[in-house]
Design goal:
The complex is a heterodimer of chains A (315) and B (256). Chain A is α/β, with parallel strands linked by helices and 315 residues long. Chain A is built from nine helices and 16 strands. Chain A folds into two domains: 169 residues, Rossmann fold; 113 residues, TPP-binding domain (Rossmann fold), CATH 3.40.50. Helix content of chain B is 26%, strand content 31%. In chain B, helix 2 packs across helix 5 and helix 3 crosses helix 4. Classes of the chains: A alpha/beta (315), B alpha/beta (256).
């Protein structure tokens, strides 16, 4: 029987927005959905997951070793649940969390994996992007268990459950020895009051044309006016103007905001693949022939250092 | 011997814009410029630097595919790899989707058994199929640690510290060796190959193995391509003349 096991992403206290999007994808499979939460203490995250419409059960895997999302530690536990529970599909988000963890689970299950699922045509037929999104391939998978990562930009978040119904939250019963060969040391993230890049409704991104970290301050002012998150092209991250977690594109974050500003970004295909689900794209660039204008809904040719301050004034 | 095994995939060069074949049966890549997958080039560069720092003694580049991937292995040898291994999987690699990542991981595991490396460094993804699976799959089959999306790798005795580029920022892990690493963009900037190195590379050993040589049989594919399509194109937009016109256009659409 078809059953889906969905691996929840969270930071120890709250569910990541990617999980609700995975639920939407999982619902298209038409089978029962169980969510598994691995944590030192799963309580608040499990309660949040139980509220997502379509989720049947929430399984918790609680132990000190699960305090940080180490793939080598989590994968054997999740694989044990997946094989013991007779799941036909095991899904996770196509974020760095899921891209690190899901293939490790797939290998332990001897299951094929589909990365970046953007549409479910049937429980065995899926669409996914290849070649930086320049080609969409439809694939048919023949396997009793299919592992997948969900391209979160292709899905909206599953709404909260509408009816009052008791979603079971129960500890998963697995006893697996977890390895000690991989140890978490630290995670350093810039604290920001701005919206999260991956879920923001508006995003302002800058490219190499910003010229320096100093130049990006101008974008932050614009972003604050708009209530937007700030992103960057690979060139701007490589140049050291901004940290890696701001990179948007094939090898950075794939985002789908309602409004996207590409400022001083030429629009390499690797960047465009990260924004093609944005509803409206605004491009500001002094090169009238920049490829970004091919995809922009509104294009403005000119010097960003003149235009952006004017925008800040006008907003 | 302290050895580093590096995976090299032959892919369409990142500057080439590929097209879907008119009948939707695949991607038209005949005659396209082929290169080492950029993330694999970074993997090789990192291996060479680790060796140059004295933390390893030999760098072995491995590629799995038809005979033409020997070109990329020759480039890897010219960059500085000590020797190369080409695994020719025969007809298994001929499908429109190529080898499945789990099959690639199984082949690499066999190479690990032969080579006994201290580190295996792979690209975090190949820019053709964008699967991003092989590294973690290999680490799982091998039962060893993985540090994916690495932007820094430091070796200290039988341990390594890796800084990983994750969505939240930078994560640091400590792993026992041997282990699998996958590379992110900012791990290093690969060196350019010089002409004398290309000449020297011709004399370096490059062995070819079949699946049978590795004790493997040809795998049955489990993922089959049904059709290939170009992505939907965005509607061409409008040009606005200045900031004021932009703001009023966005306001009119209710976007701000």
């Amino acid at each position: 029987m078809a059953r889906t096991l969905l691996v929840a992403e969270h930071d120890g206290s709250a569910l990541n927005a990617s999980t609700a999007k995975c639920v939407t994808c999982a619902r298209d499979l038409g089978a029962d959905i169980d969510v598994v939460v691995c944590a030192a203490q799963a309580g608040p995250v499990a309660a949040e997951a139980a509220k997502l419409g379509g989720v049947k059960r929430v399984l918790t895997l609680e132990q000190a070793a699960n305090a940080h999302p180490l793939a080598a530690v989590l994968a054997p536990q999740i694989a044990a649940i997946a094989s013991g529970g007779g799941y036909s599909h095991v899904l996770g988000p196509s974020t760095t969390f899921g891209r690190d963890l899901m293939p490790r689970i797939a290998a332990l299950l001897d299951a094929p994996q589909l990365s970046d699922i953007m549409a479910v045509e049937s429980p065995t037929r899926f669409r996914r992007p290849i070649y930086a999104g320049n080609v969409i391939v439809t694939v048919e998978v023949e396997s009793p268990v299919i592992v997948g990562t969900v391209r979160t930009a292709s899905y909206s978040a599953a709404p909260a459950a509408t009816t009052e119904r008791a979603v079971q939250i129960e500890p998963a019963n697995v006893s697996v020895e977890v390895p000690a060969h991989t140890r978490f040391v630290s995670v350093s993230a810039a604290k920001s009051d701005r919206p999260d890049l991956q879920t923001a409704r508006r995003v302002v991104s800058g490219g190499r044309a910003l010229g320096s970290s100093e130049g990006f301050k101008l974008l932050y002012r614009l972003a604050d006016k708009l209530g937007a998150a700030v992103g960057a092209s690979r060139a701007a991250v490589d140049a050291g103007y901004v940290p890696n977690e701001m990179q948007v594109g094939q090898t950075g974050k794939i985002i789908a905001p309602e409004l996207y500003f590409a400022i001083g970004i030429s629009g390499a295909i690797q960047h465009l693949t990260g924004i093609k689900d944005a509803k409206t794209i605004v491009a500001i660039n002094k090169d009238a022939d920049a490829p970004i204008f091919e995809v922009a809904d509104y294009g403005l040719v000119g010097d960003l250092f003149e235009i952006v301050p004017q925008l800040i004034e006008l907003l | 011997m302290k050895r580093i095994l590096v995976g090299i995939k032959r892919v369409v060069d990142y500057n080439v814009r590929v097209r879907v074949k008119p009948d939707g049966s695949g991607v038209a890549i005949d005659g396209a410029k082929m290169s080492i997958n950029p993330f694999d080039e970074i993997a090789l560069e990192e291996a060479l630097r680790i060796k140059e720092r004295g933390a390893a003694e030999e760098v072995v580049a491995a590629s799995i595919g038809a005979a033409d991937c020997q070109q990329q292995l020759r480039t890897a040898l010219a960059m500085g790899a000590d020797r190369a291994v080409h695994v020719d999987p025969g007809p298994a690699a001929a499908g429109a989707l190529g080898l499945e990542p789990l099959t690639v991981a199984r082949i690499l595991l066999k190479l690990i058994e032969r080579e006994q490396p201290l580190l295996v460094i792979l690209g975090k993804q190949a820019i053709d199929d964008d699967n991003s699976q092989t590294g973690p799959m290999l680490a799982a089959l091998w039962g060893r640690p993985q540090a994916t999306f690495a932007s820094k790798i430091e070796i200290a005795g039988d341990r390594a510290t890796a800084v990983r580029e994750v969505d939240a920022g930078l994560e640091t892990l400590e792993v026992d060796l041997p282990a699998v690493f996958t590379t992110d963009l900012r791990l290093n900037e690969p060196r350019y190959v010089k002409l004398p190195d290309i000449m020297k590379a011709k004399k370096k050993p490059l062995d070819t193995l079949t699946l049978a040589d590795l004790g493997l049989t040809s795998p049955a594919p489990r993922i089959r391509a049904v059709r290939f399509e170009p992505p939907p194109q965005r509607q061409k937009g409008v040009r606005v003349k200045d900031a004021a016109e932009l703001v009023s256009a966005l306001k009119q659409k209710g976007l701000i």
